[in-house]
Protein backbone atom coordinates (compact mmCIF):
# COMPACT_ATOMS: atom_id res chain seq x y z
CA UNK A 1 0.00 0.00 0.00
CA UNK A 2 1.27 3.47 -0.76
CA UNK A 3 -0.49 5.90 1.64
CA UNK A 4 1.03 8.75 -0.37
CA UNK A 5 0.69 11.69 2.02
CA UNK A 6 4.33 12.57 1.41
CA UNK A 7 6.84 14.10 3.76
CA UNK A 8 4.49 16.61 5.37
CA UNK A 9 4.13 17.38 9.06
CA UNK A 10 0.57 16.64 10.17
CA UNK A 11 -0.75 19.44 12.37
CA UNK A 12 -4.11 17.81 13.04
CA UNK A 13 -5.82 14.43 12.70
CA UNK A 14 -9.54 13.65 12.83
CA UNK A 15 -11.25 10.27 12.47
CA UNK A 16 -14.86 10.06 11.24
CA UNK A 17 -16.33 7.22 13.29
CA UNK A 18 -19.42 7.12 11.06
CA UNK A 19 -17.66 6.46 7.73
CA UNK A 20 -14.21 5.35 8.88
CA UNK A 21 -12.56 8.19 6.92
CA UNK A 22 -9.38 9.83 8.22
CA UNK A 23 -8.59 13.53 7.82
CA UNK A 24 -5.14 15.09 8.22
CA UNK A 25 -4.23 18.75 8.18
CA UNK A 26 -0.84 20.24 7.35
CA UNK A 27 0.76 23.50 6.31
CA UNK A 28 -0.93 23.00 2.94
CA UNK A 29 -4.58 22.27 3.74
CA UNK A 30 -6.67 19.22 4.62
CA UNK A 31 -6.33 15.77 3.11
CA UNK A 32 -8.72 12.81 3.23
CA UNK A 33 -7.96 9.11 3.36
CA UNK A 34 -11.30 7.46 2.62
CA UNK A 35 -12.08 4.24 4.43
CA UNK A 36 -10.48 1.36 2.52
CA UNK A 37 -8.42 3.66 0.27
CA UNK A 38 -4.63 3.79 0.02
CA UNK A 39 -4.29 7.28 -1.49
CA UNK A 40 -4.92 10.65 0.10
CA UNK A 41 -7.01 13.28 -1.70
CA UNK A 42 -8.00 16.88 -1.03
CA UNK A 43 -10.75 16.89 1.57
CA UNK A 44 -12.91 19.45 -0.21
CA UNK A 45 -12.94 22.52 -2.41
CA UNK A 46 -12.67 26.16 -1.50
CA UNK A 47 -10.30 25.80 1.46
CA UNK A 48 -7.31 28.10 0.98
CA UNK A 49 -3.89 26.52 0.51
CA UNK A 50 -2.72 27.53 4.01
CA UNK A 51 -1.64 26.06 7.32
CA UNK A 52 -4.47 24.26 9.08
CA UNK A 53 -3.59 24.08 12.76
CA UNK A 54 -6.42 21.85 13.91
CA UNK A 55 -9.38 19.70 12.91
CA UNK A 56 -12.58 18.87 14.76
CA UNK A 57 -15.43 16.60 13.67
CA UNK A 58 -18.93 17.05 15.06
CA UNK A 59 -20.53 13.69 14.19
CA UNK A 60 -24.12 14.72 14.98
CA UNK A 61 -23.87 17.72 12.64
CA UNK A 62 -21.80 15.81 10.01
CA UNK A 63 -19.29 18.70 9.92
CA UNK A 64 -15.51 18.86 9.84
CA UNK A 65 -14.14 22.17 11.14
CA UNK A 66 -10.67 23.33 10.09
CA UNK A 67 -8.88 26.15 11.93
CA UNK A 68 -6.50 27.92 9.58
CA UNK A 69 -3.63 30.31 10.18
CA UNK A 70 -4.89 33.77 9.25
CA UNK A 71 -7.79 32.64 7.05
CA UNK A 72 -10.46 31.96 9.69
CA UNK A 73 -12.19 28.63 10.34
CA UNK A 74 -13.80 26.55 7.63
CA UNK A 75 -16.53 23.93 7.74
CA UNK A 76 -16.86 20.93 5.43
CA UNK A 77 -20.12 18.97 5.31
CA UNK A 78 -19.35 15.28 5.64
CA UNK A 79 -21.20 12.49 3.83
**Chain-averaged pLDDT:** 90
Give me the side-by-side strand order of the main sheet.
1-2-3-4
Number of helices: 0
| Structural class estimated from helices and strands | mainly beta
Strand content: 35-45%
The arrangement of helices and strands along the chain is EEEEEEE
Number of domains: 1
Note the gap between the termini.
25 Å
Rg, rounded, reads 12 Å
Ranges where pLDDT stays below 50 over 5 or more residues in a row are: none
Helical residues, percent: under 10%
Counted beta strands: 7
- Major beta sheet summary: 4 strands, antiparallel
Shape: globular
Describe this structure in words.
With 79 residues, the chain is an all-beta fold. 0% of the residues lie in helices and 43% in strands. The protein starts with 11 loop residues before the first strand and ends with a strand. It has one domain. The strands form 2 sheets. The protein has a 4-stranded antiparallel β-sheet, with no helix packed on it. It has a 3-stranded antiparallel β-sheet with strand order 5-6-7, with no helix packed on it.
Amino acid sequence: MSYDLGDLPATGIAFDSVTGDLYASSDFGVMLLSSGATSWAAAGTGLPYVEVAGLTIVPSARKLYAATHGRSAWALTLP
